[in-house]
Amino acid sequence: MANVIQFLGAGVTPAPAGPRIAPADLDAMGERYIAYAEARDSGSTVVADLLARAVADDVPAWRDEVHRLELLRQELAAELDRLQGGA
């Protein structure tokens, strides 16, 4: 055991349960919204209604992406404060 290198934190965090969640296809979500807006603006109500349902199904993924980006923004702001000698 003396020759084993110990890594801090190794083995402490359990592996996530289940398969990894696939990231949302933000490009496809954006394209669906553009298609919806164009159909709505052109007066094609049947197509706009169908696309509105697809866009509504994307809302949880958009919310998750905004949350993920906000966490990254907070992490970067904290690191910038630390590097600049702030609190």
Main sheet attributes: strand count, strand direction, barrel closure: none
The counted number of beta strands is 0
Residue stretches low in confidence (pLDDT < 50, at least 5 long) are none
Query: How many helices does DSSP assign?
Result: 2
| Overall pLDDT confidence | 84
Task: Tell me, briefly, the overall form.
Answer: elongated
Helix vs. strand class: mainly alpha
Verbal overview:
The chain has 87 residues and is an all-alpha fold. The chain is built from two helices and no strands. α1 packs across α2 (45-83). The radius of gyration is 22 Å and the shape is elongated. The model has no long low-confidence stretch (mean pLDDT 84).
Strand-helix topology:
Layout: H1 26-42, H2 45-83
Helix pairs in contact: 1-2
Output the keywords:
single chain; 87 residues; mainly alpha; 2 helices; 64% helix; 0% strand
Short characterization:
This protein has 87 residues and is an all-alpha fold. It has helices at residues 26-42, 45-83.
